[in-house]
Amino acid sequence: MSSSIFGHLEASLHDYLEDVSRRAQTGDDFAAMHLARAELPRIAAALRAVLAEHEPDEKGRCRTCRTRRFGRAAAPCRAYLTAHLCLLVTEDDQPGDSIHINAALLRHHLGA
Ligand SMILES: [Zn+2]
Fold first, then answer.
1. What pLDDT, in 10s, does the model give residues 4-22?
2. How far is the CA of 112 from the centre of ligand 1 (A)?
3. pLDDT in tens, 35-82
């Protein structure tokens, strides 16, 4: 793990998300209620803030995902694609095995 400030920031965020996921999967009803009322709105607000950084321009292109200074902005935005894939693609959309979203799957879908 990186010892940079970003490395600590990244680690603390991953730890938080892992903790929330674990409590959601294994916690009792009180824990689930607490997550729904306290943590879920915070997570939604965080996602909204991230997506606000990727607000598309008038042509539907994302300035944040632009790869070069004068390069063409990404369309559709990868942040929006990732959020959509993680939140709105359900098991009903994919017959067969259940979907487990991970970094490799996202890279595959995003062509990264
Ligand atoms: Zn973007």
1. 988 999 999 999 999 999 9
2. 14
3. 999 999 999 999 999 999 999 888 888 888 877 666 666 678 889 999
> pTM (2 decimals)?
0.72
Residue 27 phi, psi dihedral angles, 5° rounding: -75, 165
**Cβ neighbours of residue 63 closer than 8 Å, sequence gap 6 or more:** 57, 73
Rg (CA), the chain: 17
The domain limits of the chain are: 1-52, 57-112
Q: Kindly give the residue spans of alpha helices, DSSP state H, lying in the chain.
A: 5-26, 29-34, 40-52, 78-88, 103-110
Distance from residue 13's CA to the centre of ligand 1 (Å): 20
Q: Please, are residues 75 and 67 in contact by the beta-carbon 8 Å criterion?
A: no
Helix (H, G, I), strand (E, B) or coil at 28: coil
